[in-house]
Amino acid sequence: MKLIPEVFAARDEIQRIRRTIHAHPELRYEEVRTADLVAQRLEQWGIEVHRGLGKTGVVGVLKRGTSERAIGLRADMDALPIQELNTFEHRSQNEGRMHACGHDGHTAMLLGAAQYLANHGEFDGTIVFIFQPAEEGGAGARAMMEDGLFAKFPVDAVFGLHNWPDLPEGAFGLREGPIMASSNEFRIDIKGIGAHAAMPHNGRDPVFAAVQIASALQSIITRNKKPIETAVLSITQIHAGDAVNVIPDAAWLAGTVRTFTIETLDLIETQMRKLADATAAAYDCTVDVAFNRNYPPTVNSSQETRFAAEVMREIVGAENVNTAVEPTMGAEDFAFMLLEKPGCYAFLGNGEGAHRAFGHGAGPCMLHNPSYDFNDQLLPIGSTYWVQLAQRFLAHREA
Ligand code: NI
Questions:
Q1: In terms of CB atoms within 10 Å, which of 73, 90, 230, 232 comes out highest?
Q2: Residue 311 pairs with which residues in a beta bridge?
Q3: How far is the centre of ligand 1, averaged over its atoms, from the C-alpha of 124 (Å)?
Q4: Domains in the chain, start-ordered, CATH in brackets?
């Protein structure tokens, strides 16, 4: 492992920052204290700070030399509405709020890099440090972009990093193309005509239509979608009726669709509307389909992904960089940034969880678990990655 000595030497300070953030988790668009801490540190290190993008987002700008080239490095700052079960000293002080996705670590790793780059950085160009709010369901990345993130602070490429419990401690995982799925939700309202349950011929049964639609929708996945394209369609709610002897007037079902491409998503939505309409019509019911696209798929560009992998291999060795990591059907709002800029979103292994041995339960647990904690051993690794990535991206070039 080749860590930058100054970054490694600063690990206690960065760990204190990480644990302070962990102890004071804030939900989406409420990251006031966290944003204050980030802004204060950046200013203290002489980095130009801009606030208020995406409400609580913070941008740091560090410029050297004369090159017009620029790189964006992004961390997320928000926590989750979870009651923490850990008992260690830095556990959450905020009732019902918790850094269960390790965004405390993401913020600290990027601060560790900012500190080094401000004091010792050797590069020609501009580094844009992006501390975004509301990754967890609030589309904070999009909110910052709508407030002019890339118009005010143009970058040639943008990079993101997420701690990942499924990978060994300090190992990197990434891949070209889709690494996380699009996240979408739908609700189908079916209107019929209520009747006595013993005399269904007097009504138009929306419950029967709902069940037929629920069943038919799965045929999109097996009959319409290309077999080699990945997609999930899950119906998670069916609601209708209040009494065993009454056919209700209406029924509704809802669920989620996940895909790795917009094309597959378009196909699924179109087929879903067609099947719902036609099936409801067959039983003399009417239907209303609401389909909301939340986050697009997170798609890594080839050149930037290969570049990121090279930097990773120099730090942790080729044996600890998996460039064909299994993509996940979970979603990530860094996807919005990748729609506008080339770049790479990668995972950094959080390991087996031994670092939590003195908290609630040892051993591994997944993100969004009430016993989760970011692994502090990753701090100098993640910071070194950010530093090397920026310095190599903005290396002096001979004309
Ligand atoms: Ni997360």
A1: 73
A2: none
A3: 31
A4: 5-180+297-395 (3.40.630.10), 183-295 (3.30.70.360)
**266: amino acid identity, one letter:** D
Q: Scan for tokens 């069916």, then name that residue.
A: 238
Q: Please determine, for residue 366, whether its predicted confidence score (pLDDT) is greater than 90.
A: no
Per-residue pLDDT of 279-322, as tens digits, reads 999 999 999 999 999 999 999 999 999 999 999 999 999 999 99
Pairing of β 177-180 and β 298-300: antiparallel
Q: Name residues with Cβ closer than 5 Å to ligand 1, which is an ion.
A: 101
DSSP helix/strand/coil, 130: strand
How does pLDDT run across 331-357, given as a tens digit for each residue? 999 999 999 999 999 999 998 777 776
Compute the distance from residue 217 Cα to the ligand 1 centre, in Å: 30
Q: 291: CA distance to ligand 1 center in Å?
A: 24
What is the enclosing helix (H) or strand (E) of 58?
strand 57-64
Nearest Cα neighbor of 334 from 72, 48, 79 is 72
CA 118 → CA 43, 277, 387, distances in Å? 10, 59, 10
| Contact of 213 with 203, CB cutoff 8 Å | no
How far, in Å, is the centroid of ligand 1 from the Cα of 178?
A: 17
**Residue 205 CA to ligand 1 centre (angstroms):** 43
Taking the centre of ligand 1 as the mean of its atom positions, its distance from the CA of residue 329, in whole angstroms, is 13
DSSP 150-203: HHHS--SEEEEEEEETTS-TT-EE--SEEEE-EEEEEEEEEE-B-EETT-GGGS
Q: Which residue's entry shows tokens 């930097």?
A: 311
**8 Å CB contact between 186 and 291:** yes
Does the reported pTM lie above 0.90? yes
Rounded to the nearest whole angstrom, what is the distance from the C-alpha of residue 238 to the centroid of ligand 1? 29
Residue range 94-148, pLDDT digits in tens: 999 999 999 999 999 999 999 999 999 999 999 999 999 999 999 999 999 999 9
Instruction: Write the pLDDT tens digit of every residue in 21-41.
Output: 999 999 999 999 999 999 999
Cα–Cα distance for residue pair 135/120, rounded to 1 Å: 31
Distance 307 CA to ligand 1 centre (A): 23
Residues linked to residue 61 through DSSP beta bridges, in sequence order: 48, 128
